[in-house]
Amino acid sequence: MKVVNLKQAILQAWKERWSDYQWAINMKKLFPKGATWDILNLADALLEQAMIGPSPNPLILSYLKYAISSQMVSYSSVLTAVSKFDDFSRDLCVQALLDIMDMFCDRLSCHGKAEECIGLCRALLSALHWLLRCTAASAERLREGLEAGSPAAGEKQLAMCLQRLEKTLSSTKNRALLHIAKLEEASLHTSQGLGQGGTRANQPTASWTAIEHSLLKLGEILAGLSNPQLRSQAEQCGTLIRSIPTMLSVHTEQPHKTGFPTVHALVLLEGTMNLTGETQPLVEQLMMVKRMQHIPTPLFVLEIWKACFVGLIESPEGTGELKWTAFTFLKIPQVLVKLKKYCHGDRDFTEDVNSAFEYLLKLTPLLDKADQRCNCDCTNFLLQECGKQGLLSEANVDNLTAKRKADREHAPQQKSGENANIQPNPGLILRAEPTVTNILKTMDADHSKSPEGLLGVLGHMLSGKSLDLLLAAAAATGKLKSFARKFINLNEFTTYGSEENTKPASVRALLFDISFLMLCHVAQTYGSEVILSESRTGAEVPFFETWMQTCMPEEGKILNPDHPCFRPDSTKVESLVALLNNSSEMKLVQMKWHEACLSISAAILEILNAWENGVLAFESIQKITDNIKGKVCSLAVCAVAWLVAHVRMLGLDEREKSLQMIRQLAGPLHSENTLQFYNERVVIMSSILEHMCADVLQQTATQIKFPFTGVDTMPYWNLLPPKRPIKEVLMDIFAKVLEKGWVDSRSIHIFDTLLHMGGVYWFCNNLIKELLKETRKEHTLRAVELLYSIFCLDMQQVTLVLLGHILPGLLTDSSKWHSLMDPPGTALAKLAVWCALSSYSSHKGQASTRQKKRHREDIEDYISLFPLDDMQPSKLMRLLSSNEDDANVLSSPRSPLGSHVPVTHRVMVGEGVLGQQSCVWQTVSSGRSLLPTADRSMSSSLSASQLHTVNMRDPLNRVLANLFLLISSILGSRTAGPHTQFVQWFMEECVDCLEQGSRGSILQFMPFTTVSELVKVSAMSSPKVVLAITDLSLSLGRQVAAKAIAAL
Question: Region (Disordered): which ranges (predicted)?
Answer without folding.
Answer: 402-426
